[in-house]
Amino acid sequence: MTADLFESVAGLLPSREVMAEGAVLLRGFARPVEAELLAAISEIEAQAPFRRMFTPGGHQMSVAMTNCGNAGWVTDRSGYRYDRIDPGSGKPWPAMPSVLRELAESAAGEAGFAGFVPDACLINRYEPGAKMSLHQDRDEKDYSAPIVSVSLGLPAIFLFGGPRRSDKTQRYRLAHGDVVVWGGPSRLFFHGVAALADGEHPLLGRKRVNLTFRRAR
Ligand code: MD6
Ligand code: FE
Question: pLDDT 10s digit of each residue in the chain, 217 long?
Fold first, then answer.
């Protein structure tokens, strides 16, 4: 009885774990809107399919990407940048659905970044074995805005380092519905994603989808 009561109360409390100054992990924060998120992603994907882009160095990324919002992150032989136009279709990226924008804004508020208004949402799709090497997010104009990251589907090991590439990394398991809000002093910390382990997620199957909301310009 008491244990049941505790569990039902605990389920209502936002769980927050501080990863570093400015970086907060909100476990399960996106779960209440998971069905709406997946429906919105299907619609975006129908207009702007996932594709594996090339880095400026000529390597094809293992992660497949698409975008929604006024600015989409793209990479090709000429470099990394944000562009209003999807190079695949020559048309603007699909608009950011309000369920996505509202989730990002409320997570940012929960983490102390009230007033965050994203103009870009990069959508990453990982299949088993796909990974993202250690990097910094530095293609945005204004580093005072946080980045909100939403994980869906198979769990991944997120590697979170420090201001230098050589800094030791901490490992966080990001599961379906987990949201990381990241800004302030750790905004430019190195981070990456370890090769995705195979598995089967009840809603997404053999994949992980990550949404990152940014203020790009
Ligand atoms: C990913 N995420 O989780 C890759 N970057 O698939 C990122 O590279 C990332 O989650 C900046 C802020 C949050 C992130
Ligand atoms: Fe990143």
Answer: 555 655 556 566 668 999 999 999 999 999 999 999 999 999 999 999 999 999 999 999 999 999 999 999 999 999 999 999 999 999 999 999 999 999 999 999 999 999 999 999 999 999 999 999 999 999 999 999 999 999 999 999 999 999 999 999 999 999 999 999 999 999 999 999 999 999 999 999 999 999 999 999 9
Q: Which residues, judged by CB distance below 6 Å to any ligand atom, belong to the binding site of ligand 1?
A: 124, 132, 137, 147, 149, 158, 180, 182, 191, 193, 210, 212
SS3 53: coil
3-state secondary structure of 21: coil
What domains, with CATH codes, occur in the chain? 3-214 (2.60.120.590)
Report CA(131)–ligand 2 centroid distance (Å): 12
CA distances to 48, 116, 162, 187 from 147, in Å: 22, 9, 16, 8
Of all protein residues, whose CA lies closest to atom 12 belonging to ligand 1? 147
